[in-house]
Amino acid sequence: MEQTTYLGFIPLLPLAGALVLGVMHVATCQGNRIAEKLYGILGCIGPVLSFILALKLFFSLKGLPAPDRFLTHEPFTWFSVGDLTVPMGFLADPLSSLMLLFVTFVGSLIHVYSIGYMAGDKNFGKFFAYLNLFLGSMLILVLGNSPLVMFVGWEGVGLCSYLLISFYSEERENVVAGNKAFIVNRIGDLGFVLGMAFLFWGIGADGFDYLSLKANAHNLTPALGITVCLLLFVGATGKSAQIPLYVWLPDAMAGPTPVSALIHAATMVTAGVYMVARFSFLYIEVPVAGTVVAWIGILTALLAAVFGMFQNDIKKILAYSTVSQLGYMFAGVGVAAYSAGIFHVFTHAFFKALLFLGAGSVILALHHQQNIWKMGGLKKKLPITYGTVLVGSLALAGCPPFAGFFSKDEILFSALATGHTGIWFIGVIVAGMTAYYTFRMFFVVFHGTPRDRHSYDHAQESPRVMTIPLIVLAIGAGFAGFLNFPAIFGGHQQVSHWLAPSLAEHHPDAGLGVEFLAIGGSVLAFVIGISIAYRKFFGGAEEPVYRGFCKFAANKFYVDELYATIIVRPYRFIGKAIRQMIEPYITDAPAQGVPWLYRMTGWVFKVVQVGYVRVYAIYMVIGLSIMSLLISQSLNL
Amino acid sequence: MIEHYLFLSVILFCLGILGVISRRNVFIVFMAIELMLNAANLGFVALARLHVSMDGHVLAMLVMAVAAAEAALALAVVILLHKHKGKLDTNIFSLLRG
Amino acid sequence: MIVTYMFFGFALLSILGALGLILFKHPMNGAMSFVVTLISLAGMYALLSAKLIFAIQLIVYAGAIMSLILFIIMFLNIQAKDLPDEPGRWFYLGGGIVVISPIAYLLLKMVKSLPAGDTGIIEQDFGGVKEVGQLLFRDWLLPFEIVSILLLVALVGAVVLAGKRGANT
């Protein structure tokens, strides 16, 4: 098979950047600092070059005939056990090339933006090193040609999320949030590893890369198939923050805002959706697993939307919107509309990165104020941010010509067309709620009167290094949807056709009526949501006091507390019990036994070493005597 | 016949060992060591006679020279010991006690 | 025949002397009985045709070394109260015999396996001053010189050990 060497450089460039930046930072963090500009430029080189390579890759794939659209590169053998040889292999097909494009594009913009956002931070270099590492891991995840290589990136993004969420490690809360993200992700990773193991057990014997697995997918027994699919989905719920493992994502807001943007838009959380799409050849064989995925996805969307309506922290609102949108994506891939799910990942990357970076711009302008009830009227002060966030909000809320509308609509249409009416219905309700909470945030922050006069007066627009990425992303959020313009309006659905060779997908045939029903429902929900938000918040509202159900929702249904009670506490108790009852006797005893043994040996030697010359002579004679006995025996004397 | 000499040598040697390990008097221990040396000498000379080769005689002479040197040093040490501690007991040396 | 009788006589005397050495309480008595052993051994050497060794045994061992030991014992003027009381003597002796028996057994067995040889007196060209001297100064020259250095070192050492204490006191 043809080797495409530059494939390997796509993840390698950011990783090399991480290494260089890390070494530079470690070498200089004590004494004279290197200029931030140098760090910034070095940090951006890797992602930008990767983006250029991804473009090259995209066009070279485009030049191939549709069924042969894949390029591979296997730089070296990773390990080899028995008959199994696992190469460190990269596979570029339409799916991964699309992922690559927006991951590197959005990632590069976030890097550029970070130069402005992180200016003056004493760990500037470290931040860029982590950021590059994060991006490199994500690229390995996307490009890996087998589940094992994907797992390397999978763990890499987990590690980097931990490092970056607890980036401001002086404060205990941030470290706790990082730990939470890491531990919750580990639970998901366990599912992923088990799923991989079962998959290998089932059909791994003839090669464990995607192409071989795809060829052998029909050999999987139904029971094993459903096990594998559900276990892999457990992994996805961890990475992509679905019920029941979504709890880490809101806490992940402890990190710097560009990190939130990177986690939520380009990397990490999309990994789960990508993985399900990647294994579409398995999920298509097991519709039951797909239904489970879809229902969990849509319920997550509903739950997160309910939470999002009652949050006060601008980043938390966006975090719950991410969880909610991820729920849509899973609903999409769950009903076997893989291209719709991936398309939503694609558009979501633009508008969510835009919203986070815009929120970062607001937060920076107000000197790290995140409570929306301390903002207000910022439209005049931050015109560029205002305009771009408006585009992002419209896209998120699903306003017709913007990116989010098309992708969300396609998911809902697919759900309706495949007969999942319940999912469609909940999806429409969630769309309304999304519009409501998005514009609640938007109106409170940018319209009305300033609630905190002091910080309002000092607010000023962010530097150009931050606003230009915002504008670029706003263009993307505005127009990315047209890439998959539905056929019903005379579009060509380029994205779906582009992805078709990678995905095992059947496009449902549905009549015009279904299509119009889906679109009409979405638009109606959007209009209702935004008008409620307009009525309540446009003129400037004060911070409400939540009661009853609202208070319950504002406290996130006490899910964190519930987990703490039913999982964390018993674990602590078990740990304590083990520490007190079992460890001293079972694990400590051998450890204590070793010094005891030495003490006893020492005591024996002490007794033997009496110090009298005569006794040493006796020992010598005893030794001679034993030797004599042995010699007599061996000589048969 | 020659083995009788060697039997005697073995017997004297064992008596020397017994003297070393059973007595605490410095002089007796010292002379027991001399006894062992003499037992070895007897063995050398007897075997020299057996093989009609005088190397054993030379070895015996060298052993005697070593014994003389040992006697000179050991007696000096005994004198020091007696002056220092007023005793002739080997057990007063126990600096090697663990 | 006379040689055999003489051998057994000397053997008996030497064993008795050695037993006396390890059993007498006072070192003076032990030394005197050890002299008996040494002289008997000199007789053995004579029976084995080792004329030079016979002479050296008498002159150096029984003469010089034992005189030195006796002299020191008398010089220190050892009284019965100076002697260490040796309560475990018989215990150690019994234990020693038990421990030694395998060694003795092995040695005796090995001696027994030797070929029988002529032990008659060789009158000419064996064991005399001339023959041993030629051997000593020709084949054994290096060991001889080393031993001479050893004796010199022992001499110096004895002077230092014995003299230093005297200077301090």
Summarize it.
Chain A is mainly α. Chain A has helices at 6-28, 36-62, 94-117, 124-143, 147-165, 172-203, 210-216, 222-239, 248-251, 257-266, 269-278, 280-283, 287-308, 314-334, 338-365, 383-397, 403-417, 421-446, 453-458, 464-479, 494-499, 512-537, 548-554, 559-586, 588-608, 613-635; strands at residues 71-81, 84-92. The radius of gyration of chain A is 29 Å and the shape is globular.
What does it look like?
The complex is a heterotrimer of chains A (637), B (98) and C (169). Chain A starts with 5 loop residues before the first helix and ends with a helix. With 637 residues, chain A is mainly alpha-helical. Chain A is 72% helix and 3% strand. Chain A has two domains: 229 residues, no CATH class; 269 residues, no CATH class. With 98 residues, chain B is mainly α. Chain B has one domain: Helix Hairpins. Chain B is 80% helix and 0% strand. In chain B, helix 2 packs antiparallel against helix 3. The longest helix of chain B is centred in the last third of the chain and has 31 residues. The model of chain C has no long low-confidence stretch (mean pLDDT 86). Chain C is globular. At the B-C interface, helix 1, helix 2 and helix 3 of B face helix 1, helix 2, helix 3, helix 4 and helix 5 of C.
